[in-house]
């Protein structure tokens, strides 16, 4: 066969084509040779001489399809309403497949004749022309034409009757009754509304949405409302939620079974609106109790349901917040006894962990609930008892808790356990507002542990400091680090001093060790250096070390902190030899009894040049330990005589007299709080000056805000305190009130 | 037993064992720069602490810096060495007394 254009007899050719079309569209048997011939016929008509007959071919084909569909319309209806859907689906399946084949048969026409005269994709998608209009005026590819013919000649007359039957079928399914129409016919019919427009570039789902989806959703909405009303009559929230959840799942399953996938979210949406959003008050009514009794299943259901409605969670989140807060406060309420700090931290951690687990499990770690947990912990941990009149003790208690863990005495806990507990304490630490207070208490206890060699493990200490650094930054822990460094520097120093002594063959007569601390880094500032006459046994050590130290370092002066020094004394006058660890002052008092059995307090005090406070503290501790005996009930520094107890006995041969040294006295706590207060004032004043220096002029409220945001890393200052600091800076003429407003300050350069 | 103890005391020379023997002494001392004024007049930070610059830089460092030492001039005024070495580039006089600056000693 030649591809050359030639004269063609349209009627004869069309007759042959028409016959084949009938076979193709009804899926009848069409032999390959016939198919090939018709394919060529389409070609030859399109390129016919003297003029192409393509338009005529198109028009005839269109007319043929219209006639064909008209016949099918009659067939579809012939078995009455009962079988309408079934028949429709049957002929639709046949017709849609047939039209795809037909499309291939007309390949040449489609590609060469029609596609060239159509608008480009861009014109269709971005042009403002209504796709319906545009396509109707134009010629369409044959496959599309077939679908369009189906739509206008089949769906248009039948559509509403079909939809009515479809909705009835779905209602039947909802009611759990056996289907009257095969399920695949229902689904196929519904999907045909989509497929028939699938060739469109724009608003492909228009027919589906308008013809079927909208009526379906409206009918479903009514159904959901009725359903909800029935369920509500039981007045049982937890049952209601169960049922609603099941209902939503069921409806989604149904939607997947019958509908086009784009409808799924819409169905869920309707369901949620009618069954949840419209009954929020009912759901909330049981919220309190569910949270109170921590009914996990119900809460989990509640979460799943409320999550779907915008803003509906807020009320639940608030309830959870209140509950956690109350539980937290109850856990630390009225703690008493020696282990308050341990109970405090561990109870809080229990509450925290419990609710974090609950939120993970029940609320799927939802950010809103995590936020509520944070907020609740924050307000519990920074809670000030007595309506805010008493100070918050959390920083102190937490520091004490860490101290207990890091101290040697912690009995029966293995290292990994200590480590774990310390990392958990960071959880509490992060919630503390007054981190600076914690730092004060922590550094005090760290200093004590280091100086009195009570540290369990240096690794644990360092790990803890690193954790704090991670949480609060370098500045927060720089002093703690310096204390730590001093320890290793001192160890090194001791070795060098020993070498020095050995080289020069000097005997000190005692086993001498020393910590040299860097002034400023250690929280010992308040402890004033008291006058003290050094016992002669120590003089050589002190002299040798000072000369060694000054030789080694330039420009440094050493201050001996005798109240922190410790000595081991061997007692040789008792039945058993005892070794007792005492403070330097206690040692000095005891050493005076080398030659005499009884001394008056006055004598001792004068010999040692101790002040009254120090003397009394240590004398009392020695009398309490029964090493010394007093001849009066209370020790009076002028009248009492002290006598050596020559009948002293102790089960242990090595012991320590500690009472006076290590107990954290209320006085010390107060001192710590005061020094915190001072530091805060300095910090705030510095912040105010910094801000004013860069801003020059600033309104009162803005200044307060700025200061607050700068300082909140380590503590939450009261507005009162900030005001006080502003006042004192005005007095010191760093800043002044501007002349035209008392609410504004300016920086004085 | 009490008698025995009394004997000990009466006759010290026969028994060398003393009543109290000092075995061990763990001393604690604090060091600070031997200065008249404990604030550096240039950066207004205590001389015991590192100067402002060093504090800012050592933020990257995990341990406190030991290197920021003190320097004394012939006039006996003292400053952070870091602060003073920047100062003398501008003006070779002591910022406090305006005497010609020359180093008397350095902290170590």
Textual characterization of the structure:
The complex is a heterodimer of chains A (749) and B (108). By secondary structure, chain A is mostly helical. Chain A folds into five domains: 10-204, Cullin Repeats (5 helical Cullin repeat like, Up-down Bundle), CATH 1.20.1310.10; 224-381, Cullin Repeats (5 helical Cullin repeat like), CATH 1.20.1310; 396-472, Cullin Repeats (5 helical Cullin repeat like), CATH 1.20.1310.10; 565-660, Cullin, Chain C, Domain 2 (Ribosomal Protein S5, domain 2, 2-Layer Sandwich), CATH 3.30.230; 666-747, Arc Repressor Mutant, subunit A (Orthogonal Bundle). In chain A, 65% of the residues lie in helices and 6% in strands. Chain A contains 32 helices and eleven strands. In chain A, the strands form three sheets. In chain A, strands 3-4-8 form a three-stranded mixed β-sheet. In chain A, strand 10 and strand 11 (744-747) form a beta hairpin. In chain A, helix 8 runs parallel beside helix 10. The N and C termini of chain A lie far apart (103 Å). Chain B has a domain at 39-107: Herpes Virus-1 (2-Layer Sandwich), CATH 3.30.40.10. A three-stranded antiparallel β-sheet of chain B has the order 3-2-4. Chain B is α+β, with helices and mostly antiparallel strands and 108 residues long. Chain B is built from three helices and four strands. The longest helix of chain B has 10 residues, at 81-90. Classes of the chains: A mainly alpha (749), B alpha+beta (108). Strand 1 of chain A pairs parallel with strand 1 (20-33) of chain B, so a sheet runs across the interface.
